[in-house]
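ingest -> fold -> write
write: protein_1
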Amino acid sequence: MNIKDDYKLVLDLFDWSCIRRYPSLEARCIVIQIAVAAKDPKMAQELFREFWAKPSSDVSFSFSRVLEKLIYTYKDWGSNPYVFDIFFQVLTEAGILDDARKLFDKMLNYGLVLSVDSCNLFLSRLSNSINGPKMALKVFREFSEAGISWNTASYNIMIHSLCQIGKVKEAHSLVLQMEFRGCIPDAISYSTVISGYCDAKELRLMLKVLEDMQLKGLKPNAYTFNSIILLLCNTGKVVDAEKVLREMISRGIIPDNVVYTTLIDGFSKNGNVAAAVRMYNEMQSQNIVPDFIAYTALIWGLCQNEKVAEADKLFNEMLSIGLKPDEFTYTTLIDAYCKTGDIKMAFFLHNEMVQMGLIPNVVTYTALVDGLCKQGDVDAANELLQEMREKGLVLNIYTYNSLLNGLCKSGNIGQAVKLMEDMEVAGIQPDVYTYTSLMDAYCKSGEMVKAHQLLREMLHKGIQPTAVTFNVLMNGFCISGMLEDGEKLLHWMLEKGIMPNATTYNSLMKQYCVRNNMRTATEIYRGMAHLGVTPNGNSYNILIRGHCKARNMKEAWFLHKEMVKKGFDPTVDTYHSLIKGFIKRKKYLEARVLFKEMRSKGFLVDKELYLIFADMNYAEGNIDTTLELCDEAIENCFTDKTKGVKT
C-alpha cells in the first residue's frame, strides 16, 4: 500500500515475488488495478490473459473469483473503471463470450456502462461465431437499451451480420437509418451492402446503393469494385465488368489477381476468348502473376473455342512457372484433343496426369470414350468402359450416351438398343440425348416406324423432346420421301406449342426444292418468317439453289443479296448454281461479279466454270486473263494442290 504510487517499484516487487512463489489471485488483481491507474493497459491485458493462458490448480482462478477480487481491490488500489473494460476485452478476445456477457450485465448492475469500443469488439467476435450473426443482432438491441451509444463501426458490424444471413435489404435499411440515429455511414457501410447485393445477384439494387454512395461523396474502395465486377461477370455482363475495371484504375485503385482472374473467367464463359486473352496479357503487363485459377479459366476458354494449340502452350507455360494442374485442367485439355480427333495426344495427357498422382475421374474417361467413338473405335471405347468399372468409377449418363452415340454412328443399332437397356438396369434413366441419338440412327436407316415409336416412348416417360429431337425426325421423314408426314409433324409441333427452328424448316424446304416444287418451298419459307423463326445460312443456300435449278434467277438473286446483308456466306454449291444460272439466262455481268467474289474468298471453282470463263475471256481478246484462269484451273482441278482451299 505504501508504494502503490511508485509503479516501477510495484512491478519490480511483483517480478521478485513471482520468482519465489506464484502470486495469489488478490495480489495479481492489485497489480492489474495499479497498472490501469498508471495508464499501462498492455500490462493489465497481459496479466488478465495469464489467468487463462497459464491455468493454475487453484480453483479461485475462475471468472467469478477473478471478478470478485477485481471488485474487492477496486476502491483501494486503482478506482479506474477502465479495468473492467480491459477484462471484458480479454474475455472477448479469448472467445469466452458467455463470461464476457455476464461481466457486462454485472457492471450494468453497478451503474457502469462499458465503452462502445469494447462492445464493438464483442459484437464482431460474436457475429463471427457459430450462429453468431443472429446473436449479434439480439445483443445489439439489448446493449442499446442498456445505454450503449453505438457508433459507425458498430452499425457496420451489424450491416455485415445482416448480409451474412442473407438479410441484405434489412442491412440497406439500417444504412439509411444511421443518420437519424446520429451516425454517418462511411464507405465501409455502403460497400458491405453492395457486396451483399452482389452475393444475392441483385444487380439493380446494387447499382442504386452505388449511386447513393457516390452522391454522398464517398469513394468506392477495392473491395467494392471487386464485388461489383464479380456480380457483373456472374450475370454475364462481362463488358460492363470491364468498364468497372477501367473506372477502378482511373481512380488510382490497382486491381489485384482476383479481379483479373474474375474477368478472365467471365470472358471465357461468355465465349469471348479474345477478351480473356487480352485480360491475361494486361495482367502480366501490370506485373501481376496469374495463379492456377487464372490459367485454368483461360485454358478452358481456349479449348471451348477450339484453340487447342494456344491452350496447350498456356498449359506448358503454367508448368514452367511451377504451377501444378489438377484433374479439371487435364480433363479440359483431354476433352479438347478428343474433339479435334487427336486421340493420341489425349491419351498422352491421360498417362501424364496418372504419373503425376492425379486420378482421372468419370468426366475424364467420358471425354476419352466420346473421342474414341467419334473415330469409330467403339471396341476401344468399350474396353475403356470396362477399365472404368474395374477402378470402381460409377458410369454416368454422359458416358453411356457417348458410347451409345458411337454405336449408332457406326451402324450398330442393335448394340445401341442393348446398351440403352443396360443403362436402365444400372439405374441410369435414358435422357433426351439418348433417345435422340437412337432416333437419328433409325431415321438414317429408313426405319421411321421405330423412330416414331421412340418419340411416343419418350413422351410416355415424361421426357421432353428438344428441337434437335424433332429435327432428327423431320429429316428422317424428308430423306425417306415422307413429306406429308413431315408437314404433319410440323403442324403437331405448332399445336403443342413447340417452336420449330430454322433446321426444322430447312429439311422440308430442301426436299421440295429437290422435287422442283418451289411454290411449296416458298410457302414454307414464308410460314417460317411469319412465326418469327429467323432463317440461317443453310435456309438461304437451299432456296437459292432451288430457284436457280428452276431458273427463277430474280428470286435467287434477291435471296442472295438478303443473305449477304444478314452476314451469311453462300456455299461453293450456291455460287456454282447462281453463276451457271446467270450464264444460262445470259446475265454475264452478274455471273462475272459472283465468279470474282467466289475466287477471292478462296472457294474451289469447278472445271466447268473455269472453261466457261476462259472461253469467254478468250473470245473477248483478254489473253492474259485467259491464261491466268487456265493456270488456276490446272493447279486446282488437275493436281493434288487443293489443300486449304474452301469447299
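write: protein_2
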Amino acid sequence: MGRVSGAFKAVGRLLAFFVISAVCGALVAGIFMPVAAATWGATNGTVQFFDGLPTELTVTPPARVTQIVAADGSGIATLYSENRTPVNLDQMSPNIKNAIIAIEDYRFYDHGGVDTTGILRAVMANVRGDRQGASTLTQQYVANVLKENSLAQGEDPTVLLNGQKSLGDKLREMKLAIALEKKYSKDDILAGYLNLVFFNTHAYGIQAASQYFFSVDAKDLTLPQAALLAGLVNGPSVYDPTQYPESSVARRNLVLDAMLQHGYISKKDHDAAVATPLQLKINPPHQGCAYATQAQYFCDYVLHQILNDPAYGDTPDARYQNITRNGLTITTTLDPRLQGPAQAQVDATAGANPDKWGTSLVTVQPGTGKVLAMAQNTRMLPGQGLDFVTSYNFNVDKTDANGNDLGGAGGFQPGSSVKPITLTAWLSEGKQTDAIVNAAQRRYPLNHPWRDTCAKVTGAYDDTTVALGTAPDLQNDEPNWYRPMTVREGIYQSINTATFASAAALSDFCDIQRAADALGMRDGAGKNQKLDLSTLGNLLGGMNVSPMTQASAYATFAANGTYCVPWSIATVKDWQGKQLGGQTQQCQPGAIKPDVAKAVTNVLQDVLTKGSGYNIKDDAGKTITLGVPDAAKTGTNQYNSQTWLVGYTKGLATASFFGEALGNPEDHLGRNVMVNGRFWPNIDGAYIAGPQWAYYMQKVLGLYDHGNFDPPPPSLITPGKK
C-alpha cells in the first residue's frame, strides 16, 4: 500500500510539474512575446487573461501615526491603526537592506520585477516536495500595496499567503510588478517595501520594528538584529521572538547563511552573528489618550472634537480613518509649563482617596480663549498610579452644541460661584457696588412682583406656603447676616439674601439672563443650552456647569469684558504639512461693558482679602496669597459635596473644583469626612478647592501677565459719584 501511495504522489508531482511549466510558459509568453503567444493553443486563454490585466498600481501612502502635541511641540499622544514611521533608504542600516534581499530575493537587482529563473527553481523544488515561493520583493511590495489600498478605502481584505492565492491573483501581481519596475527605481521599491511590510501587530515597517524589538532606529540595526527582522517577515507569528525565541533565532541564522552565501558578509561576521544571543529590548508603543504622556483628559477632549467635526470627514468612520491612518499632526493650545503643575496639584489635593472625591483644574487664557491646562485626579486605566479610574472628563460639557459626545461628566452645581452673574447685571444697569440692599429679606412669595421683560420668574421662598410647592425662607450659612449691607459685602461674604435683594432691585430681572449669556454660561449637559436664570434657585447655583465654562466666564472679567469661546486645537496638518483644519480664536469685545468687568473684578478682589476667600489656608492655618493682583469667588452646593474656587490674574483664569464628580451630590455629603488625612466637619469652596487653586496659581502665574487690573470708574463704585 505504501508503494502505491508513493507512486500516486510521484505521478501527482509530475503532473504538477507539467501544469506549472505550462503556466510559466504562458507567463513568459505574456511578458516577452504577446503577439507570438496568440499562436500557442495550449496557453492562449492564459495569455489573453494576462494581456487584459491592469498595469497601473496606485501606491496609496501607507498608514502613518497621528501625533497630538502641545503648543510647544512636545508630545501628548499617538493614534494609529498601523504603527508605522516611514524613513528614507539612507536612514536604514545596510544590514537590513542586505539581509532582506539575501533571504527574500537575492536576484532583486537583476530581474525586471518577475524572476523567471526563480519561478523555474520554485517549480523544481515543488516537484521534489519542497515548498518554495517565487515571489520577488517587487511582487511582495505589490501585494502589500494592494492590501494597504484596500484598508485605506475602509475595506477589510483577507491577507492570503502566496500559496493560497489563485493563479489570477499571482498573474495580476506579476504584471503590476513588471510595470512598477518601469516606473520606480530598485531603491525606491526596496524602501517602499521595507516601510510597508508587516513585522508585528505593534510594528509596521522597519523603523517601527526596530524600535519595538530592539529600541533602536532602523539606521542603527546591527547584523544579528537586522537578520532577525528580515527573517520575521516570512512568518511574523511563527517567528515572533517574544513568543518563539528558538524558532526566531533559527530563522535569523538561516538569513545569516543566505547573506554569507550571496557574499554580503564574511565568514567571520557570519559566525559572530550566529553566536550572538537573542537580545531583545522590547519597547511597546502605546497609542490613544489613555496612554498620553501628559494631559490624558485634554487629549480625549481634543480627540472627541475632531471626531465630531465634518471638516475631517463626512462620516464618523471617515473621520476615524483620517485620524488613525493619515499621519496627522494635531497641535493644541496646551501649555506643558502649566499642565505639569496642574496635574501634580490635583493628584496631591485628595491624596489617598477611598471615598472617590474628584478634583480638577482647568485654565483659560483671558483675551484669547486658549485652554492652557486641564487636569483631574483620576486615570483612564487601572495601574496608572491612582485608584480612581474613569473615562469621564470632569472639566468639560457632556456634549457639544450638536449633541455629539465630548466625554464630559456633565458639570457640577456651582453654588455661590455664579453670584457674579447677578453682580454683572446689577452693574450693567449702572448701579454701584457700594449701594445698600436689604439682605434681611428672606421671603419671596409666589406673588412677588419681579420686574421682568423676557420670561416669567419661577420659584418662591416662603415658609408659609411650603405645602404649595415653595421653598422655605432663604437661608444664609450663618445667622448674623440678615441685615442691610452693600452689594459688595454681599458678594465677598457670599450672602444669599444679598444676592436676592440685588436681583429684586433690578429694573429688569432679565438682565441676569443677558449677563449669563454674555459670559458664555451654558448647561453642563451640553447641546449649547443656556442656563435658565428665570428659575430663582439657579441664582444660587442649583444647575450644573462645567469648570471650563466657569473659567471662560471669569476670563471675561479678567479681559475687561471680552468673552472668548474656549478652544484647544491650533492646527491640524497631514503628513506632508498641508493644513487640514484647526480652530480659530472667537472673541467678542464688549460682551459685557468694559467698565462693568472692571467693577466686578474690583469686588472679587475683596473676596480674597477679606471675604470667603480669606479662608484659603495652608495646613498650618496661614492664609495662602498669590502676592500679585488676583480676584476670585468661592462656591459650595447645599450638600457641601461640590465645591469651587474660580479665580484669575490678568493673564490666567482657572476653575478649581473639589467634590462628588460622578454620582448624585445628595448621596455623597461633604460633611464629617476625612480628606487626605484631615477631618472636615463640612467642606466649603475655600477649604480644599481654594488651596488647590492657590498652590497651582502660585507656581504658574509668572508665566503670563500678572500685572495690575484696570481700575473701575467711581460711578460704578460709590453711589452719587460720577
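write: annotation protein_2
The longest strand covers residues 358-364.
The chain is about 35% helix and 10% strand.
pipeline exit 0
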